[in-house]
Specification:
about 90% helix
């Protein structure tokens, strides 16, 4: 692997680590469920995709294809799961207000 690619992969790993760490901190520091869901879903999408890009730079070949498929799956499922959790929270809070 070329020296520049190794440095770029290392930078992406550090970026993914920082984004994931900030997502975890956001989950514990946010005031309500909706903000916590936002922090968690952004950490998943941005942090894991940075890790996947680093693996593409480091590995190439079959690794690149798998990483693209995983990233596409995350881009599709993370917002949907965040929406489902937010909707369930909204419905739960609505029932509490009516009772």
């Amino acid at each position: 692997m070329d020296g520049a690619l190794a440095v770029a992969a290392d930078v992406l790993v550090v970026l993914g680590l920082v984004v994931s760490t900030l997502g975890v901190v956001g989950i514990f520091r946010m005031p309500d469920t909706y903000n916590e869901i936002h922090a968690a879903s952004k950490a998943v999408v941005l942090g894991i995709v940075a890790f996947l890009l680093a693996s593409v730079l480091a590995g190439g070949g079959v690794t690149a294809g798998r990483a693209v498929l995983i990233a596409a799956f995350l881009f599709l499922t993370a917002p949907v799961s965040a929406h489902v959790i937010a909707r369930a929270t909204w419905q739960r809070d609505g029932r509490r207000r009516r009772e």
